Amino acid sequence: MDFYEILQQYDWEETRASIYSKTAADVEKALQNAQPTADDFMALISPAAAPYLEQMAQQSRSRTLSRFGKTMQLYVPLYLSNECTNFCTYCGFNHNNKIERNTLNKDQILKEAEAIRKLGFEHLLLVTGEHPRAAGFDYLKETLTLLKPLFSQLSVEVQPMDTAEYKALTDEGLHAVYVYQETYYEKRYPVYHPKGKKANFRYRLETAERLGKANIHKAGLGCLLGLEDWRVDSFFTALHLQFLKRNYWKTKYSIAFPRLRPHAGSFNPDYPISDREFVQLICAYRLLDENVELSLSTRESPKMRNHLAQLGITTMSAGSSTKPGGYAERTESLEQFAINDDRCPAEVEASLKAQGYEVVWKDWDTYMQQV
Amino acid sequence: MKPLIIADKTFQSRLFTGTGKFSSNQVMEDALLASESELVTVALRRVDLNNSQDDLLRHLNHPHINLLPNTSGVRTAKEAVFAAELAREALGTNWVKLEIHPDPRYLLPDSEETLKATGQLVKLGFVVLPYIQADPVLCKKLEDVGTAAVMPLGAPIGSNKGLQTRDFLRIIIEQSNVPVIVDAGIGAPSHAAEAIEMGADAVLVNTAIAVSNHPAMMGKAFKLAVEAAMLAREAKLAPVRDYAEASSPLTSFLD
């Protein structure tokens, strides 16, 4: 059975009702279970778990410490292109937005790479919008070939692709792929993704399975917190994770927590997640899975990031620019989203060190996957 | 105490250590010095092989510390051989801790690929120390292809659960013609002592030292435990009895 079929067995509203009907006793049972189930996870992300937040944080911290030690991996995103044929209602790269569009050429990419190397980064995440002509498979393949000698680990956050394409990119040194479902609510998905290739819910959902089939080293999952009820979407993300672990056991998984916040003049989420709930969610994931990578971007504030470094997060971006060409030179291109933590990587490192954490800049090498 | 000999090297300490999960490279260095460990494993993927000033390696630069590069992260024998050759060239050691785990979560070793890679690496002139399941048959097969030692796990890596594979470790130790180093799962000095008392030649400890509140103190605690167990072994432990000796002989009626 594929994951789409599993997802169809669930009704959104019923699932929501089960989460909201969890009781203190359910939460206590989940907290005592050394290997929590999906049902326990429901309890841990439910409103009933709110009074248990401190206990969850304590457990999350100690489990993270024993699996990952006092370390934090740092990476940086490189925005290659803001050209996009999609119409995602919440995104700055929406095709309708009248912004200056730009796709970096080889010289520009190398300039960016040089600027990024100077900041200390070894792990690089390549980001594009979805634009097959400007930044499709061939462009990504060439970019990986170009950057492979310069970085130890290369990942992408780009449009979903086919299994064969993922295999070919892995041969070029691609280590990880992040494709977020945004929402698992199939009925409401078209509201946010009305047109363009991204409108195909099922093709996006099955991306992680194609990645597993391509034997990718790491696959990133997540939903856009705030779009729909974050508790329900997070439950389905967890189910997705459990399914993938059973079926594609050679792949490592990573969960990200992009959250939408109310913002004047831009997309306003219907289901904002508060800071307390945000911490609750991250701790719940750690209790569900000791080994899963939990990743936090610069969308979050320095204060939030500093604290979460000790509560379950194991990977962070730092010093990010979300516009193409943002590291080497200033451009007029629009950012995808506003950064909340604009500290430079050295400052992030210093503040992690002050908390007793070692920054891991390098935890891979492209030759490790040489075949 | 009797020194331990593996291939061309002699070790006074039977405590081998790792370099992961420490809160800083300085904390790591202090802990490793306190442990008096002479063989320290380093994940190749963490090291910048092109940089002679690599910060991690700089902190391991002590005359008594031998580096044991490991291949953690590779999924196949082919990848492991490639990584080992790069390490030999860059770090100038032909010692390698072979770790092949296609499973990225529990990091459990792949027996089939490990056996294949060991054979190939031995032929290429490496001193191979493979991380393996506590599988006595696999250990004999590894001996056949020329392994320098075997490193069976005591429990899942990082779990601190002690010698969960105790019964299989006993068989491995009983049958082995190469040094047996218990790797993974050792969470307390008492676990390390148990392994040495049982007859293991050495133990490898990382997480238990790295994530303790006082890594240097814990490094020393492990050193003392391993030494105590080794002394006890040399002094011969008294046999364990489950019953009391009968006060009057049961067979005297035969006299």
Q: Ends of chain A: how far apart?
A: 31 Å
> Could you report the average pLDDT of chain A, rounded to the nearest whole number?
92
**What is the fold named in CATH at topology level of chain A?**
TIM Barrel
Q: Provide the gyration radius of chain A in Å.
A: 20 Å
Biggest sheet architecture of chain A: 8 strands, parallel, barrel
Report Rg of chain B. Answer: 20 Å
* Residues in helices of chain A, as a percent range: 40-55%
**Proportion in β-strands of chain A:** 5-15%
By CATH reckoning, the class of chain A would read: Alpha Beta
In terms of DSSP E residues, the strand content of chain B is 15-25%
By CATH, the superfamily of chain A comes out as Aldolase class I
The interface involving the most residues is between: A-B, 31 and 32 residues
Number of continuous helical runs of chain A = 16
SS field, number of helical segments of chain B: 9
- Compressed to H and E, one letter per element, the order of chain A equals HHHHHEHEHHEHEHHHEHEHEHEHE
Topology diagram in text:
The complex is a heterodimer of chains A (371) and B (255).
Chain A: H1 3-8, H2 12-20, H3 24-32, H4 38-44, H5 53-68, E1 71-79, H6 106-118, E2 123-127, H7 132-135, H8 137-147, E3 153-157, H9 163-171, E4 174-178, H10 189-192, H11 201-205, H12 207-213, E5 218-221, H13 230-247, E6 252-256, H14 275-288, E7 293-296, H15 302-308, E8 315-317, H16 345-354, E9 358-360
Parallel strand pairs in A: 1-2, 1-8, 1-9, 2-3, 3-4, 4-5, 5-6, 6-7, 7-8
Chain B: E1 4-6, E2 9-11, E3 15-18, H1 25-35, E4 39-43, H2 55-58, E5 66-70, H3 77-91, E6 95-98, H4 111-123, E7 127-132, H5 136-144, E8 151-152, H6 166-175, E9 181-183, H7 189-198, E10 202-205, H8 207-210, H9 215-235
Parallel strand pairs in B: 3-4, 3-10, 4-5, 6-7, 7-8, 9-10
Antiparallel strand pairs in B: 1-2
Helix pairs in contact in B: 1-9, 3-4, 5-6, 7-9
